[in-house]
Amino acid sequence: MATKVILHIGQQKSGTTYLQEILGSCTDGLAAKAGILFPPSLREILPDAIENHERAAYGLLGTEFPWVSAERAEAEQRKWARLSERVRDWPGTVLLSAEALSVIRAPAVQRLAEELRPAELDVVITTRALGRTLPSLWQQHVRNGRSLGARQFFESLAEQRDRGGRAIEEERHLHLWRSFALGGLVRRWTGVAGRITVIINPGTPPDLLWHRFADTIGAQTDLPPENLLVRRTHAGLSLPETELMMHLNRAIEAAGWDDFEARALRERILTESAQPRGPRIGVPEAASELVQRWSEEDLDDLHRTGATVLGDVDDLRFRPERDVHPSVSAQQLGEAAATAIMAVADRTHFKPPHRRRRPLYRKLNPNRWT
Fold first, then answer.
1. I need a labelling partner for 237 at 20 to 30 A (CA). Which of 150, 174, 218, 356 fits?
2. What pTM, to 2 d.p., does this model score?
3. Largest CA distance in the chain
4. Which CATH class is domain 4-129+178-234+297-318?
């Protein structure tokens, strides 16, 4: 049985996928140099997949995740069985990474801990400033097909947060604030973890997050290929592109497209378009005071938990000059629309019709048939 299990539980938009890609690329080195098993999961089936243990967590905890149906949970149970077998068979430290674990409630936390006993349990939380993560989350929702505008998105977050801490901890659908209210997240795992470490991701330099993470888990920092240390896994959309995609989602819904057709169109636009153009995503001006208040409340709450924090806490504070986004101009929206159209346009449909050429001999002797 593993002597220690390190659980990396996100948060979303904190660089989790970046870390998972690095970990998946150097599993042999982790095991050989640091004695840490990062069990294979997705790459056994899809070689180019980003390695993580989310699906296995669905197999154990099922509908505790609001987006997981009972049928999906049953289908993933074999993944948890295989993963837990690897944990039992490894004699040292096992590292598991699944950002969805940041949203589970206290009873599910206890159940997971019981499944991993008698191994010692450490928890690693990666985090970024709310002024960066929440806008990025809105962009991801739009990218996945939702059509809520930025202002309405932040209004819905405010309504959920106003329900209070007890509701957030107990009501299954309030999962966003179970993850993003940092102090509450730490306390939820305090009773089962021997150590909880919060790693702050300031965004730059690109490799700082990995080096902090590697130090925390006790790995060699020179394991990954250099090209993985300097790039991000997810390329975000700019603000004009996100607003365009939001309007497209509304048009798709009004036209009655099914989910597969809609997803295929969005993916075609996203994969064929050039690099993001225009101002980046940020907090709407109307929501800036709210996000600033949430940020200060969460930092005070985190301080009271006594958790180990790696990085400068000021990097988590709301900074209007960095975090508030400008309004989108008609020109920027038009440029984004033109780029999207060109991404899906097939030039073969717009060629002129083929014209029959007159016989050469008639051109040479036009009176031959008169």
1. 174
2. 0.87
3. 103
4. alpha beta
